[in-house]
Fold this sequence. Notes:
The protein is mainly beta. The protein is built from 3 helices and 18 strands. The chain has a 5-stranded antiparallel beta sheet with strand order 3-2-1-4-5, with no helix packed on it. The termini are far apart.
Amino acid sequence: MIRLGETQTLTVVKKVEFGIYLAEEGKPDKRVLLPAKQVPDGTELEDEIEVFVYKDSKDRVISTTREPKLKMGEAAALTVVSVQQIGAFLDWGLEKDLFLPYKEQVGKVQAGDTILVRLYIDKSSRLCASMKELYDMLDTESPYRRGDMVHGRVYEFSNNFGTFVAVDDKYSAMIPIYEDHSSLRIGDNIEARVAGVKPDGKLDLTLREKAYMQIDKDAKQVMQVLEEYGGVLPFNDKASPEVIMSEAKMSKNAFKRAVGRLYKERKVEITDTNIRKL
């Protein structure tokens, strides 16, 4: 069976002026065209050729010897060429751009963005891209360990878990929910530190520096928030993690460390209900 969206080895069964027809061995009645400009020199009947099968701009099944940037069963980072009301079009290395329907987007995309997608066949038997259901397609056997610095692409946000990231566009990773991700957007390529490796191989990432290096930055951020509140925060370090994240953009533990530093330096006082700048 000739399979859309996959690379496969097919046999030459007919030569015509505008190319050659390929089929699986023993199934010459189900064939696909390889255009003349794609046919390797010296190709003869019964030769085997490795091709990628897709649909051209006229929705005809066709093959190519070119290697696409994305195949069925993979996740890959593709660049947005254009955006329309019905969806976006992505550069996937072939003469036809790949369609990303609006309903398959998990966030707003713009021309020039590079986003992580997978390939699927829609109800009309067309190859399309999707930004959904990428989590289980990523590799969990990365070479990275705790403390390593890595680069990854943001591909989804979760209100329950955090920010999902594909390290090197292939390894499964996440920035936990308790870290501030308000400055991130889908497609961002970020630098992060591996905070841990889970038993299943997935990576936990952090955008923050090690605690002893981060505390000065956090203390400055708390002072800035204090200034915005006129010198009095209407909560203290016993507030809920949600309140602290919403107002101070850091985890409760980081907030407590920063406030503790400021308290020791006699820059703030902590009461039962608030924190005051001295």
